[in-house]
Amino acid sequence: MKKFFFPLVLALFAAACLQELPQAPKLEIELPVAGSEEIWKASEQEGKPVLISFMGTWCPWCKRSLPALDAAAQAFEGKAVVVGAFADADEDAVLEVVKEHGMKTKALYNARQAAQNMGVSGFPHIMLFDKKHRLVKVWNGYGPDLEVQFQEELSKVTD
């Protein structure tokens, strides 16, 4: 009886632990592109890494991160997809931020539900997915070295 009890307890403990592991968010997003009739679909980005920054037009730290996002989009054009996903449902508010900050990165809007589905709890929240759209890196908040970090991490998933 003792031979079976310990393995059984161990297996039950392992099963309980496995159930507690959080699932990585899936890149299953379809959002409108600000300033166009286009709908951006993650499913159409197959085979390319995706760097997506969830943000809000009211967020000063999000606005500070825009140059790093633009630099990444420019440096990895054709090799990776870089987008900004604004939680705002107001397209005009997003277009105002785009214009005010000279944002060149594709700006998506109405991303509040998508952000919640992805487990985003604050802004900016930046996620990097590899070519198979598996989550490989997350940045929470702004840091002055975001541009360097984006370059380093994108280099790893585009080679």
Domain count: 1
CATH homologous superfamily descriptor: Glutaredoxin
State the name of the first-level CATH class.
Answer: Alpha Beta
Task: Report the sheet-strand fraction.
Answer: 15-25%
CATH architecture: 3-Layer(aba) Sandwich
Radius of gyration equals 19 Å
Average pLDDT level: 89
Q: How many extended strands? A: 7
Uncertain parts: none
Tell the overall outline.
Answer: globular
Major sheet details: 5 strands, mixed
* Terminal residue distance: 54 Å
Sketch the topology as an H/E string, one letter per element.
Answer: HEEEHEHEHEEH
Structural class: alpha/beta
Strand order of the largest sheet: 5-4-3-6-7
- Count of individual helical segments: 5
Helicity level:
40-55%
List the helices and strands and how they pair.
Blueprint: H1 2-20, E1 30-32, E2 39-41, E3 50-55, H2 60-75, E4 81-86, H3 91-101, E5 106-108, H4 112-117, E6 125-129, E7 135-140, H5 146-158
Parallel strand pairs: 3-4, 4-5
Antiparallel strand pairs: 1-2, 3-6, 6-7
Task: Give an account of the 3D structure.
The protein is α/β, with parallel strands linked by helices and 159 residues long. It has a single domain (27-158), classed as Glutaredoxin. It is built from five helices and seven strands, in the order αβββαβαβαββα. The model has no long low-confidence stretch (mean pLDDT 89).
